[in-house]
Design brief:
By secondary structure, the chain is an alpha+beta fold. 56% of the residues lie in helices and 16% in strands. It is found in: Cell membrane.
Length: 850
Amino acid sequence: MIKAALKSLLGRKLRLLTSTFAIVLGVAFVVGTLLFSDTLNRSFTALFDATVGDVVVQPAEGEDVLPGGSTELTVPGDLVDRLADVPGAARADGQVGVAGVYVIDSDGKPIGGFGPPALGGNWTDAPAANGLPGLEIVEGRAPEAPGEVVLDDQTAEKSGYDLGDTVPIITADAEARLEPTLVGVSGFPEGGSLNGASFAAFTTEESQRLFLDGKDVYNDIWVTAEDGVSQADLRDRVAEVLPDGVEAVTGDDAADEGASDLLDAIGFLTTFLLIFAGIALVVGSFIIVNTFSILVAQRSRELALLRALGASKRQVVRSVQIEAFVVGLLGATAGLGLGVLLAMGLRTLFGAFGLDLTGQPLVFEPRTFLAAYVVGITVTMVASYFPARRASRIAPVQAMRDDIALPEASLRRRFRLGLALTVLGGLMLFVGLADVVDLGNGGWWTGGGILAVLLGVTAMSPVLAAPILLGARRLYAATFGSIGNLAAQNALRNPRRTAATASALMIGLALACAMAIIGDSAKATVDKAVARDFTGDYVVSSVFGGEFSATVARRVDRVDGVADVVQQRGDVARYDGDFAFVIAIGADDLDLIGVDVTAGEPDLADGTVLLDEDFARDEGLGPGDTATFTVASGDRDLTVAGTFAPNALLQATAIVSIPTFEQAGYPDRDRLLIVYADADADAPPGLQQRLDDALADQPTVTAKDQDAFAAEQREPIDQFVLIIYALLGLALLIAVLGIVNTLALSVIERTREVGLLRAIGLTRRQLRLMITLESVVIAFLGAVLGVVLGIGFGIALMWAVRDEGLDVISVPFDQVAIFLALSIVIGVLAAVLPSRRAARLDVLRAIATE
């Protein structure tokens, strides 16, 4: 039986090729994601290991605030000499490091900013922990005087500057624009990179002047251990001489904490990509089931003969499963190779967004190889089991017949099973989205519900498809005559096979349609919120969405035609362990920006806070209560002055005054400026030009009117939706291959029929048209089912989050129409190869085929 199975497989190599493609693509997505994830983890772990000392002395407060939040906390400069004298310490080096230091390239554009940070600080030659080499000067020299800078090698290359050139640099501190001279280039001589981050290094004194108000303080201090002294021992000795408010941690702990925090923050990438790999595998499973169903049906006489010769039902199942094992093995191997190329592509793609991993080789962990073969072989064998089991139940005499359609009783059972799955999926969706019952992570319930509905509709699709196929038959007959009628009859001949092929396309288009609704609804919500809450005439903000120098506000305020400028600051905090976002504005600016105080008083005196009304209700807080926030400087007790309604320009948990914000340890930097024009000023275009002129030397900051601001808020949504479409494109590609495979196998199955049609006068052109029409109706069926499901999923998801601010449900019918039109194009393209193969069949040989 094993020998017979392998010979059967070798005899049908081309028939199984597209089925193998489905496995190859799905496995490649899994492998590529795991390779990229492991490479990302390794690169950041190595980077953090090279950017800490053996012992790191740092401020003790505020460590529980979300990593990435900015802080003004420092350690005294006089500690450096004291720490250098600690027994076991070889040296101590003060470190200055801040974010928001952007290098402007020779074309006047900022480098980086999206994703990896733009860093600035002081240059030191301090060794990293465990003797690892840190950044070193690879060209030129270290900075020795004010007005000199060293850039990392990747930034220097991207910027287009050479040694001796003047380098424009934008900072978020008091001196907003710098123009130092490039005197050196730094890098990792033994390999490695900053993973897309940029680093501009100055002398220690200059760094303190620029970023620390000229004070003799540091952000942290590295203490290097003498040979033979462990990090733990040195940490304990250092801790004995530290003042209150300062702590010592080992370099290994500091590196692990920094890397784990960052990797947790970007860990969603792995999950996000694996979800789409799972979608691709689910779609591929439909193709495999369909392919093996057709192949088993075509081999019915062969299997019947084996049964007649004494083969048991179990042996027949094993015969088909052996074929599936070989297909899965080959598909997983090819998918492993393609996954390497995909990982390289992901590395290049994320490099375009600033996450540069080109200096890091791909990391091959054993789990990647294991996952490739487990996924590829398991999915193929499970998908082929059901056709194999059906084959084992065929009696020898029954299998000699050419009729392979499922009996109606089987379709009725499938419909009942599909209906039960759909109802179950609907209940799971309700539990996951409505949050009525606390049964754990709602996301798993929602995802499981969507999968159950998709599988349920797939099971019911042979029955659901009947009206659409009958309608297509009438339309085809009226439009294309007997050729159209034959095409529709072919689709109706085996509704289970037609529906299964269409279901693969249905899944991809259902998810694409749901995402289109989510994206369009999010953009409509943004437009509504901006139109409702945009009270100023212009908004000044960073093109990277980060902080910028407070001096920009003073510069804008001096522009002719500007009446008022409202500064808005913001940063992360924690309340009762959960993250919160705190906004700071001027105490007298509440009325100016239209904050709707729903309870209490519109008072922003020092030490008071206004809370979002939903947050206050959930936490049981009201006017007069005390709210304790963990901020950069530690725990701060704030008196609740009142609550406010959600506002598009104040997307915050809490609002405080700017003095209260600074007292909490946050830096003197703005995130947003709301500009109000003088009532007597000239037309807005004139003011826009003057604002642009005032910000001309600040390429990281722009001024926008309401329409431009709304467009800026919509842009990330469009980018996200496009990424989703690109990832779903893999599932759609597999679905198209499924249609091609089904049509090709169907042509082989109907070889004699095709020969007879050609013999009675059907031309090659008519034959190609017939197969194309059959392909189009399959694709259109999948599109109709997918669009209907997608609209339902999209509306349900948006309805579930209506209380989270996304209160507009918008169905983009233009995109829905494009999806339907795309299905027709898919059908035409999928029929090209099968129709050409059919048209080239020799008529006499086709008629003689059994």
